[in-house]
Design brief:
Elements lengths: L4 E5 L3 E6 L4 E7 L2 E2 L3 E6 L6 H5 L2 H4 L2 H5 L4 E9 L5 E9 L4 E9 L5 E8 L12 E5 L6 E8 L11 E8 L16 E10 L5 E12 L6
């Protein structure tokens, strides 16, 4: 636990939390870096044709810039008796006068439990497009596999696909609509893995389910 960062190491991994930004800035597994841009709050998604018709991209625009105003206030690391380390991040989102808290519990196995919560600071905020987190991995992680509905894209209001284990490429998850818009989501995912040609990568596990997407576009 240093002045600028918290670094936690295990037999096959090393994870670094940057105190200035309040983010998980690096995760190395068996010598392979898995983080290109850190895990951050995400309240936004690409618009659909229906959204444009309702002018939601204008009415909800405050959520587009909300995560960009993320301001870490405190980062605290605590060691537990079972060998795990918990890193608590207290942050503010000034553009909406709100608070955001995220805790990472890093276990000796390398598993990381992520728990995030958001406290609105304004009584009348517009409708929230999404509540989640997003990150970017380095180039070369082109395989994706998941257990949940598929293989086609699924959403809360369009989810009749068969539950099972599905896999493919990152490019293969893109749906080519006539006008580019939100696409490729996977609802009710039990787990989703993104790996490179050697099978090294990240595994995200729901508690119990996730809504997740992987793509080459921001």
């Amino acid at each position: 636990d240093g002045p600028d960062a918290v670094t936690i190491t295990g037999p096959a991994f090393a994870v670094l939390f940057d105190k200035a930004s309040g983010t998980m800035a690096s995760l190395v597994y068996r010598g392979t870096e898995l983080v290109h841009q850190p895990l951050m709050p995400d309240f936004w998604r690409a618009w659909t044709d229906n959204d444009r018709g309702a002018r939601l991209q204008t009415r909800l625009n405050v959520w587009r810039i909300a995560s960009e105003s993320w301001d870490a206030k405190a980062v605290k690391a605590t060691r537990a008796a079972d060998g795990s380390v918990r890193v608590d991040v207290e942050a503010a989102i000034p553009v909406i006068s709100s608070a955001y808290r995220v805790s990472y519990t890093v276990f000796p196995t390398g598993d990381i439990y992520v728990d995030a919560s958001f406290t609105p600071g304004i009584d009348k905020l517009p409708m929230l497009p999404r509540f989640g987190m997003q990150m970017a991995m380095p180039a070369g992680f082109e395989r994706v596999a998941w257990f949940g509905p598929g293989p086609e894209e699924t959403y809360a209001d369009r989810n009749e696909a068969r539950v099972g284990r599905h896999s493919g490429t990152v490019d293969g998850q893109w749906t080519e609509y006539s006008k580019p818009q939100e696409n490729g989501n996977k609802a009710d995912v039990r787990w989703l893995a993104v790996t490179n040609a050697k099978g090294v990568g990240l595994l995200a596990v729901g508690m119990p389910h996730l809504s997740a997407a992987v793509r080459h576009y921001t």
